[in-house]
Design brief:
Its EC number is 2.7.1.56. It is an enzyme of class 2 (transferase). One of its GO terms (biological process) is carbohydrate catabolic process. This is 1-phosphofructokinase. The chain is of the alpha/beta class. It has one domain: Ribokinase (UDP-N-acetylmuramoyl-L-alanine:D-glutamate ligase). Helices cover about 30% and strands about 25% of the residues. Helix 1 crosses helix 8, helix 3 runs parallel beside helix 4 and helix 6 crosses helix 7. The two termini are about 35 Å apart.
Length: about 325
């Protein structure tokens, strides 16, 4: 069972438009409404794969109630932490060529009591599993991974994720962390089992631009020296890297068309964790999930029928000199 933690969830509305003309009235050709937030998307992808998942998240107001309802409709168990502020609503405008314009609201400001309640809920859901190296859910399902994902809402200090990683490790759970900036750097001291930056976040973490795949490998290796046990780095259209103590692997996939990249990185992390969370086979699953997600509308998460592992290539012969399609600064 994969537990996800989303400190700043959202209600996401995606509109498909013929073109984004500033100052004009835009008429959408299609629309979707989905529960959002990086950890929420991981839970949605895990559930689409037929695996059990529990989503821990603060929820408030009518948007929060709707997020819980939409998750329940997808068979996802929700462990809500009630908060006074209303859950944020985000808007995405998707154009036919795959260009996506997003408007993300800041979200509510959490109080100290709400912050502690969120941490306590995670610990309660992990439980204690003495001697087995893993937590257990309420009905005894092993908590194999905890995915802590996304930005922190107002009111939570950058060290909040570090505290969560520490508490989860004390309970015997493995941690996958997908965040950026000061929150990522602060959490590294607690040695998360996997961190999942994209190229821009990786460049920001090491303080220098990345122009090649080799640059990204060096940056990932640097994050490992800071404390990350493994780094799963998304390089956009160029593929993904997995850098661990035992080896470095590069994965890529053939994608025929891009419809929306909303949640593609979250789908990749879900695929990685659902496949065990280590080694080239898990990387192949991550790449397949990400490639499938970009070919679906809005933030729809791929199901097993959407995956094409035959289009995925994973190799230990990393193309270090390959220029990144979108260099990261």
């Amino acid at each position: 069972m994969i537990l996800t933690v989303t400190p700043n969830p959202s209600l996401d509305r995606t509109y498909e438009v013929p073109a984004l003309d500033r100052g004009e009235v835009l008429r959408a050709t299609a629309e979707r409404m989905d529960p959002g937030g990086k950890g929420v998307n991981v839970s949605r992808a895990v559930a689409a794969a037929g695996r059990r998942t529990v989503a821990v998240l603060p929820l408030g107001g009518a948007p929060g109630a709707l997020v819980a309802e939409l998750l329940a409709q997808q068979g996802i168990e929700v462990a809500p932490v009630p908060v006074a502020g209303a859950t944020r609503s985000n808007i995405a405008l998707a154009e036919p060529d795959g260009t996506l314009t997003k408007i993300n609201a800041p979200g509510p400001e959490l109080t100290g009591a709400e912050s502690e309640a969120l941490l306590a809920t995670v610990r309660a859901r992990i439980g204690a599993h003495a001697g087995a190296g893993a937590g257990t859910g309420r009905d005894g399902d092993a908590v194999t991974w905890i995915a802590c994902c996304g930005s922190l809402p107002r009111g939570l200090a950058p060290e909040w994720y570090a505290e969560l990683v520490a508490r989860a490790h004390e309970a015997g759970a493995r941690i996958a962390l997908d965040t950026s900036g000061p929150s990522l750097l602060a959490a590294l001291r607690e040695r998360p089992d996997v961190v999942k930056p994209n190229a821009e976040e990786l460049a920001q973490a090491v303080g220098r631009p990345l122009a090649t795949v080799g640059d990204a490998v060096k940056a990932a290796e640097e994050l490992r020296t800071y404390g990350a046990a493994a780094v799963l780095a998304s390089l956009g259209a160029d593929g993904q890297l997995l850098v661990t103590e035992t080896g470095t692997y590069f994965g890529s996939a053939t994608v025929t068309s891009v419809r929306s990249n909303v949640g593609a990185g979250d789908a990749s992390l879900a695929g990685f964790l659902a496949a065990g969370g280590e080694g080239p086979a898990a990387l192949a699953s991550a790449v397949a999930h990400g490639a499938a997600a970009v070919q679906l509308p809005g933030s729809v998460m791929p199901s097993p029928g959407d995956l094409d592992l035959s289009a995925v290539t994973v190799t230990a012969d990393v193309p270090l000199d390959r220029l990144l399609t979108e260099p990261a600064s």
